[in-house]
């Protein structure tokens, strides 16, 4: 005997037991519609659940960027509103100060000049939208860019890779090594300096590029900056090498900026021979190139390997060579020898005109950062009637609004010049 499965309808199956002669002996009826329906419905539920999850996943992916974009817009508008409110508050404070009220912020400026000392305050804010001061009467601004090392030490978390830094600097100090552009050297140097105590010098270089653009915006005709003194040669050898390599890189970057902005870059260096020859050549090339820029929007004097005493001695020796024994040397003669650039010997009349148009060799303001209150052998002869402003911030921390406050403060000063 053997069982045989027989489908006698679409919703039932029958089992029939057949004997050897073909006669059916038994029959079993099995309904199937209920089971098939349950399986089909279960499959439909699973399919519906899958597509529901898929739909909401796609919706979530589309919604997240939209949500963050909207959130960013809300934050942006809140910031704009806060800046407007801050500007109104500052305006009200200034109005109150004019009536006799004084509000002190957390950042001091100490000033000196014309025989009296005063204290002012500058609020630290890094907005590029600071109000442009009107009629500030500052044609020549001098800056002692102090505090790069302190800034670097404060933010350092890594140790200096001495061997790798020396290898990079070797490209500048070794004449036998070929140079393949400034950019690869700068990128490698910036990577090695990152988060070390020497990185403050790199950040200070970036700040100078930004500061020059701010001076152009505020119609300052001449900027003189103290980059490296003759006394700085006595610093640790690695630091000097890093500084010289940064100078090489930033001088080239300043050249690119000068082409776009119409800047005449002059290098003031009484001890010029102490600078590595590759850097001396790029200094001469940049000065010769940028003196041809027209229109000229600003003159930037970069004092490198500079000493105020050496400058005076060089001026006296230069006048001695030209001296007519029947003509005494005057203050004007000596002043004409101040701020002599590395290529001025070939452009005497032009550079005399440049200095005259820039307000003369004597700056109206000298700004020193990092809280120190001394000249440090900078512009000793030129600063007879210069206003001195000493700022607690380090040089990398100075921002555009600090310059605005400085110019506004100078405009309010009573400058008598001994009268």
Can you give a write-up of this model?
- The protein is α/β, with parallel strands linked by helices and 419 residues long.
- The protein has a single domain, classed as Decaprenyl diphosphate synthase-like (Undecaprenyl pyrophosphate synthetase), CATH 3.40.1180.10.
- The chain has 11 helices and 11 strands.
- It has helices spanning 33-98, 148-155, 162-173, 182-193, 199-217, 237-261, 277-290, 308-322, 331-335, 348-357, 400-412; strands at residues 2-9, 12-18, 24-31, 108-113, 116-121, 140-144, 222-229, 263-268, 298-306, 365-368, 387-391.
- An 8-stranded mixed beta sheet has the order 5-4-11-10-6-7-9-8, sandwiched between helices.
- Strand 1 (2-9) and strand 2 (12-18) form a beta hairpin.
- Helix 3 crosses helix 6, helix 4 (182-193) crosses helix 6 and helix 6 packs parallel to helix 7 (277-290).
- The longest helix has 66 residues, at 33-98.
- The chain is elongated.
- The protein starts with a strand and ends in a 7-residue tail after the last helix.
- 32% of the residues are buried.
- Residues 4-11, 87-107 and 109-129 have low confidence and may be disordered.
